[in-house]
Write a structure and sequence with these properties.
By secondary structure, the chain is of the alpha+beta class. The chain has helices at 2-8, 36-42, 46-49, 64-74, 118-135, 138-151, 157-171, 187-213, 224-235, 237-250, 256-320, 325-389, 393-455; strands spanning 20-25, 31-34, 80-87, 93-103, 106-112, 458-461, 464-467. It folds into two domains: 2-115, Beta-Lactamase (2-Layer Sandwich); 187-467, Ferritin, CATH 1.20.1260. The strands form two sheets. The protein has a five-stranded antiparallel beta sheet with strand order 2-1-5-4-3, sandwiched between helices. It has a two-stranded antiparallel ribbon with strand order 6-7. Helix 5 runs antiparallel to helix 6 and helix 8 (187-213) runs antiparallel to helix 13 (393-455).
């Protein structure tokens, strides 16, 4: 048996590119249910795998630090995706891209087959992390992971996650969603076909919106270099207005005009600087929330795809098994309850986050416009001051350096801020369309729920499905 297992470790358990599988655990990590592909790929029987800890499929090549990262996230009700190498009952391996999230009573993990070249790069990083865990500890391995990602140009695991999700989604063939069988049967089979078609339509809505969304994964509203440069320029405003005030005092009676200009400039500078702080804070909010919106929407796509795939499994099982519809649904009610409840939850969360994000970028647009208006006001003060000071050569000579410095300030900040306004306006257009796609998906999933309530012999109690 030992020799058999050693040979099996070199073999891969079959997991096809178009397939998906899902499993649910309770809060202690005990497997509650899963779909047919999960059972087949793991090579365990239903009796063996259910009520077992999820680490029954853990492969020894996986670093513990990856699972720590995963648990840290989901315990905070955050979604996370990771490449994971698993082990089947006979010792075969299989790689998955796992998307994990929490629900009220446990944790869900949706898995697809990794298809991009990123997986091989990750495998090399995992090997080094495993050696560090053996020679040092989990914390050292986690630091190595973050350092490796930084070397690759990713500031955080979340940024890396968006990158590999984008690449995997590009590779994944989703054409089957547009080629679902027509509804050709009546009764339970016809209803299952309708449910599969509807969930496929919901998934297609997310596929379309995520195609647009993931283009914004690397959008940087003001690059770090620009951000630092603009911030430094704004920080000089206070010194500029202060120096103007000193220069006006030195001119005595002649400095009256310059003093008025200086006071006006000082007042407007304060408005500009305070508005810039609001602008900076709103940019941070948008950047943080964009990442959250992307992850949530990707998860919703996989969840709705999984629901469609699951109904396909039910159709196959229903055709293959010689049992009546009531018994069939009774056996599947727990799985269907968990999957549908999780789908509704994720789709609803995704829609809420997208609506909130549209509000955030509208606020950023408002803050950007106001900042530009204050900058234009400074320009007008500069122009007016230049005209006033031209009446006296002495005042003009004193004011000229400030005119040049104000010109430099306006040129340095106005173009980058105008660029932000343009980017934000484009974001708003795109996200309004994306929000409509997500709302359509939510409506379609509610149709799925309604069909199950009305046509299947299943009751709902506290939003849970119970077989009659």
């Amino acid at each position: 048996m030992k020799l058999h297992l050693e040979n099996s470790e070199l073999l891969e358990s079959e997991f096809l590119p178009h397939e998906m599988f899902i499993s649910k655990t309770n809060k202690k990590g005990i497997i509650i249910n899963g779909n047919n592909v999960f059972v087949r790929v793991s090579e365990y029987s239903n009796e063996e795998i259910y009520d077992s800890p999820h680490n029954i499929i853990r492969h020894p090549d996986m670093p513990k630090s990856i699972f720590k990262l995963l648990w840290d996230k989901i315990k905070k009700n955050e979604m996370i995706a990771a490449y994971v190498k698993n082990k089947s009952k006979t010792g075969k391996y299989y790689w998955v891209l796992a998307f994990v999230f929490s629900t009220d009573d446990g944790y869900f993990s949706i898995r697809i087959k990794p298809l991009s070249s990123i997986r091989k790069n990750v495998e090399e990083i995992y090997k080094k992390m495993l050696n560090i865990e053996l020679s040092e500890n989990v914390e050292a391995a986690t630091k190595f992971l973050m350092s490796s990602l930084l070397d690759l140009g990713f500031k955080s695991y979340e940024q890396f996650m968006l990158h590999f999700l984008s690449e995997e989604f590009k590779k994944r063939d989703k054409s089957y969603l547009n080629k679902l069988d027509n509804i050709t049967n009546s009764g339970t089979l016809g209803q299952l076909q309708e449910l599969r078609k509807l969930s496929g339509e919901a998934a297609s809505s997310f596929v379309q919106s995520n195609t647009d969304l993931l283009k914004f994964g690397n959008v940087d509203i003001l690059s770090d270099t620009q951000f630092k440069s603009v911030t430094n320029v704004f920080s000089r405003l206070e010194y500029l207005s202060f120096n103007m005030s000193i220069s006006a005092n030195r001119l005595g009676n002649l400095g009256g005009t310059l003093s008025i200009i200086s006071n006006n400039f000082q007042t407007s500078s304060k408005l500009v600087f305070d508005q810039f702080e609001k602008f900076k804070n709103q940019i941070d909010i948008v950047k943080d929330n964009l990442q959250e919106v992307l992850v949530s929407s990707c998860c919703s796509q996989l969840q709705t795809e999984m629901l469609c795939f699951y109904f396909g499994e039910l159709i196959h099982d229903y055709k293959s098994l010689n049992i009546d519809s009531n018994n069939f649904l009774r056996k599947k009610s727990s799985e269907l309850n968990d999957l549908l409840s999780a789908t509704k939850l994720l789709v609803l969360q995704s829609c809420k986050k997208q609506k909130k994000f549209v509000e955030d970028i509208l606020n950023l647009k408002k803050d950007t416009k106001l900042l530009l208006n204050y900058i234009i006001r400074l320009d007008l003060i500069k122009t007016g001051g230049k005209l006033e000071s031209s009446r006296s050569a002495e005042i003009l000579n004193s004011f000229q350096p400030f005119v040049l410095e104000m010109d430099q300030f306006i040129v340095s900040v106005q173009n980058p801020i105008e660029d932000v306004l343009f980017e934000v306006s484009e974001l708003i257009k795109t996200f309004e369309a994306i929000e409509m796609s997500a709302t359509l998906a939510e409506h379609t999933i509610n149709q799925v729920d309604l069909i199950i309530r009305e046509n299947f012999l299943i009751e709902h109690s506290n939003d849970k499905i119970i077989a009659v």
